[in-house]
Amino acid sequence: METLAYLHLYQAFEDNHSPELASDIARFWRPSNWHQTSNLALMRLVSRAICLAFASACTTALLLVGVADTAFSIPLRQGDTGAEVSRLQQRLRSLGYFRENTTGYYGQNTETAVRTFQQDASLSVDGIYGENTDLALRSRLGEAWAAAKVLKVGDRGLAVRKLQERLVIAGYPNVAIDDNYGSQTQEAVRLFQEGLGLRNQNGIADLETQAALGEKLYVVVVPARNQAILNRVLGIFPTAFLAPHRLGTYVHAGSYPRRDVAEIRVEELRRQGIPDARVAYL
């Protein structure tokens, strides 16, 4: 920017093709006792410098606005749509406030999630995602993300063990609690992601997956007296699988954070001749 300024100043001395501008400024400076040529050069220099300073200020302001928009455009409110609403929904979901699939539409469910978060954060509750809500949400996310990291095949340690324990509690099969994120853990995570309709269904336990897994889940279960039961459930819900339990093996037909969704699946199973289907809260 300094180089551009010098170029403009140099041009101010050299340019002899703006008589109207020079004349206007000369009338303003007429009381001066300076030599006419010196006045003209000085006046044109000052005018160019003022214009350049104004243009520089405007450019800086526009750049700052661009950075702010890239970070997050606020406020967001009911009726808004777009990628930034999706980002907000994902952030709320990672903290357990938004339990739907991300849609990019700021509807009633998103507003309710924002209101609940505002209440928990002791903010003014209006359902509008404004500056104070944004700051509070970023702070909470910083705390959550500091305590968690993405887990994938090859990882080891206590975080993996806790993930495996939760998968077992949720009824996902063939998960050895051995602190090692192997292929069995990867497949169980993939099944969980698929069952909840999460964005990523690749078997990598990202922060959204871990937040969802940390919630209490409503699991659709069917006592598995024989292979024929599993085959019948698979014919209705292809993602079902056998899961062991201390009370006996059962068919796991899906996990959901909302009971009403799980009940819909139960009703469908019963309607198709599987009366033992029910919802378990794990």
TrEMBL record:
<dbReference type="InterPro" id="IPR002477">
    <property type="entry name" value="Peptidoglycan-bd-like"/>
</dbReference>
<feature type="transmembrane region" description="Helical">
    <location>
        <begin position="45"/>
        <end position="68"/>
    </location>
</feature>
<dbReference type="InterPro" id="IPR036366">
    <property type="entry name" value="PGBDSf"/>
</dbReference>
<feature type="domain" description="Peptidoglycan binding-like">
    <location>
        <begin position="157"/>
        <end position="213"/>
    </location>
</feature>
<feature type="domain" description="Peptidoglycan binding-like">
    <location>
        <begin position="81"/>
        <end position="133"/>
    </location>
</feature>
<protein>
    <submittedName>
        <fullName>Peptidoglycan-binding protein</fullName>
    </submittedName>
</protein>
<keyword id="KW-1133">Transmembrane helix</keyword>
<keyword id="KW-0812">Transmembrane</keyword>
<keyword id="KW-0472">Membrane</keyword>
<dbReference type="InterPro" id="IPR036365">
    <property type="entry name" value="PGBD-like_sf"/>
</dbReference>
<dbReference type="Pfam" id="PF01471">
    <property type="entry name" value="PG_binding_1"/>
</dbReference>
